[in-house]
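Homework-ish question, so no full write-ups if that breaks the rules, but can someone show me the predicted structure for this set?
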Amino acid sequence: MSLDDFGAALPRPKPDFVPALTPLVVALVVAPFIGSASSFVTLTAAGLAMGMMIFTMASGLTLVFGMMDVLNFGHGAFISLGAYVATLVLLPLAHWAQVDSWPLDLALLALALAAAVVVCGLFGLIFERLVVVPVYGQHLKQILATIGGSIVAEQLLYALFGPDQIALAPPASFRGAFVLGDAAIEKYRVVATVVGLVVFVGLTLALNRTRIGLLIRAGVQDREMVEALGYRIDRLFVGVFMAGASLAGVGGVLWALYREQVHASMGGELLVLCFIVIIVGGLGSVGGCFISAILVGLIDNYAGFLAPKLAIVANILLMVVVLLWRPRGLYPVGGR
Amino acid sequence: MTARLALAGVHTHIGSYHILQGVDFDAPAGATTMLLGRNGAGKTTCLRTIMGLWRPSRGTIALGEATLSGLPASAIARAGVAYVPETMAVFADLTVRENLMLAAREGPLDERRLDWIFGFFPTLKRFWLSRAGSLSGGQKQMVSIARAIVEPRRLLLIDEPTKGLAPAIVGGLIDCLNEIKRLGATMVVVEQNFRVAREVGDFVRVMDNGRIVHAGPMAEFVADEALQARLIGLSLDSHQ
Amino acid sequence: MMILSGRPPRGRTLQALVIAVTLALALAPFLFPGVKPLNVAAKVCVYALLGASYDLLLGYAGMVSFAHVMFFGVGSYGVGLALYGLGPSWGAVALGLAAGLAVSTLLALAIGLFSLRVQAIFFTMVTLAVSYAFNVLASQLDWLTGGEDGRSFRVPEILQPGFRLIDREAFGVALGGRQVSYYLVLVGCVVVFLALLRIVNSPFGRVLEAIRENPFRAEALGYRIVFHRTLATCLAAAGATFAGALNALWLRYVGPDTALAGSIQIATLVVVVIGGMGTLYGAILGAALFVVAQNYLQTLLGAVSTAAGDAGLPLLPGLFHPDRWLLWLGLLFILVVYFAPAGLVGALSREDDTTP
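A: Not a homework solution, just the prediction itself:
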């Protein structure tokens, strides 16, 4: 009477580790060309830090894209906004930031990050309602509308904050470097890496251990079926969009302190890197985004050392090579 | 708790295609109604329209006292309608357990319900923590059906459950469908396989060119070979 | 236009507008004497051609590419570097143009064939990334391209500002090298524009539209999608290359900011969308609106900003600052996308003959 096991399940596929090892492979392949071990360590640390920052910026984008097929070319605005929020928080408190006390400086950083999360989340909500919703489901119009939105947002930032670059120095205890033998690892880079890791772990736990996370993961694969199971996926999407904007803001804060300057154009430039990361990682996959962000960060730094003029080309080549190997990215999710 | 499903004058357009051209359809409460017809007759469109995945351009759909037409799919689902699509739509990267957890909106999975389901779908228990995407076609179908019955529902819409399954297990699935009938929900099942239709269905509706061209009890339909041949070009003995 | 196109602009207003703009451009040196207006007019011509070539891709083939400015840049640098390296001769111009077309075609082929491998969703993002990289590369390879500073070069004699065509003035305007240059740009743009028009109104163009509307059906009917899309990319690239070459000749300078900047790609997009996608002559109207706005809107904004500042209003002086003209154009752009997706052409057409 029972349907027993007809046709054994396909042999349980081993978890796909190969893509996860690519950063390691790249690092090992490049190492001999770098020459000195100390340079290699410094570059790798820099690459990891950059990767973590790009990851926070791109993670929201991949979920939004993967879940609702929404191409948000305005995502860069959230990055820039986060950076400006950092200036609003940290510049007035500059005298505190001068104090060489890492608990205090961590608190300041946390404050800036929290402010960015709130402000960018709110702005994300406004952007979603005004710019994304009216063109929902139409790819071409989405691209056009979100580009229009990004232009307007960038200009608004200039109007509010002025067209010039704003200098922003990291708090005192984050400046300088740890010295390991011959290698110098900038302290701020370590901080940024830790923040990025926290974001990654937090996101992964939220996606895998919570009901909302379950809904999001299912929604990325088959939005229609999630609706047919009774969930208002458009409400969920607003939440994901806002979270993506907040994460981009966090990335913006980290990047601003890294580059020690803030300008509205940085969002647009970083958006290109974000696109490369989410394409290489696979749409809708946070894990894929994490791996590919590390790859991009490492390659950017190694190429920047070995052939400075070709650094950006190196990442384009990465994208082309990965797409030829795996046309849907390293860890594609769902039916797209 | 169970209710009668009634469609009146339902039209559905998809782009410029006019698929449902005035469907008057009813599925009696608590019984299983088979929806038969040629490929392209509009059967899947009919189910999707009831589920709210496509908006009817005209007409009304009611489940008991409640009007479903015009509501979004999520609201229709919350009104007690469960959908087993032709494509099964199993969440491949989620485990079998997670697939069922999603379907259980009311709260944690009901143990007794699960045990009953495992009774006729033992494979689900074996692959409970496996990625649903690694299951075979027949097993995915089990997941999809299990999702629809893991909690009480008033209406089950099942689209071609035996499609693509090996003939040997069709018999097993028929038994399972009959077991599910014991829940007493109103069921609408689209089928191309006439054997499944006659062994599971209480009532039959035949669709052609976006309209219902015949409606009646299954027993009568089974007895009338001439009618079968005319409507779906099959006789009782084919599609075994 | 009537001769070459099976679909002339419909509606009196629209026809009048297109004719008016074309006439204004044709007689620009005489209607608007002076350095700045002629610059504006030349830019309108170039952007009209650039927009039209992009419309072939976006409006007719339905492909959203952000690499279009790359072809423009290749045309500019081709002619510019040839004149820089080989001296001011027509041979250099021809060589530069030919080289530019060759490189553009190769790039277009690469992009067209690469699009085979990747999903449509990726295509747009990939073209953005490639274009950005190209821009950075041009700046980095300063031994070749002059880097950020670009290259200034001399143009053939009759195009040089000092040249005098005839010694007397015609209609109050001296006919010198600038005017000759302008007519070279105008005629060049017109010729290539007409060629593009011929292409979109040919069977090839109709197949492109069929592919845009329903790729599956088109493929089922036997059309080779990849071939058509790749050819469309190459033709559009060629159009943009011409536009870039003419731009370089006009400016007598080539650099990343005038040849490869992301702002040029955005401008192209704005021109085509506001003008009207899938019409080609929409690009003429869009270019006129955009370039005029770029140059004269700022004056208007400046007046508003000063007034707001004088009135002591907060925030407004910043919002209406002349440098923020793109903010207002961006808002207009969004409004057009929402409410008038067929652009100016669609809004003014009598019959709904244009694409959605």
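Now go work out the reasoning yourself. Hint: Chain B has ten helices and ten strands.
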